[in-house]
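Regression test case RT-17, inverse folding.

Input:
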């Protein structure tokens, strides 16, 4: 008899523990949601730089081709816009934008954070202005970084072959 009463108590206690554990999980989710609304966004990257790399001109199918890419580097922010600390592990990712791309409002790349470098794909001829935006793990987005600008210059084509060459023999 005592055994049956003990088993019932144990089941009651276990069900109460399970209910409390469920409530703790719910409260933890509530806290995360509140933190997301309370925490300000990360500060922007302030020291973005761009280094242009080009290949030597190549003659392919009668055309001179040169490819250009850019390596972007920066320092991740360590604060939020209100001056409070931003732990690097709270940086979820960084979006990279290029004002010279066909769709400048769409990121040309994304790197998991924290990160401090990105290499572009091959760039078109013209002006490119790069910016970086920091995304934290609560869904906040920083203002754009400073602009790091480069200009990809067109390569002058090799002169065409002479086609109307004539020779005169003099004696």
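Golden output:
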């Amino acid at each position: 008899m005592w055994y049956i009463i003990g088993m019932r108590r144990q089941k009651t206690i276990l069900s109460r523990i399970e209910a409390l554990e469920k409530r703790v999980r719910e409260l933890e989710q509530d806290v995360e949601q509140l933190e997301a609304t309370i925490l300000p966004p990360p500060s922007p990257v302030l020291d973005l730089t761009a280094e242009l790399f080009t290949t030597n001109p190549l003659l392919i199918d009668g055309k001179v081709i040169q490819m250009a890419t850019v390596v972007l580097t920066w320092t991740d922010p360590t604060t939020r816009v209100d001056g409070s600390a931003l732990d690097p592990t709270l940086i979820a990712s960084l979006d990279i934008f290029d004002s010279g791309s066909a769709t400048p409002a769409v990121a040309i790349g994304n790197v998991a954070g924290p990160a401090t470098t990105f290499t572009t794909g091959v760039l078109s001829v013209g002006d490119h202005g790069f910016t970086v935006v920091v995304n934290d793990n609560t869904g906040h987005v920083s203002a754009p970084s400073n602009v790091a600008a480069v200009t990809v210059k067109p390569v002058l084509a090799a002169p065409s072959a002479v086609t109307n060459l004539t020779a005169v023999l003099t004696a």
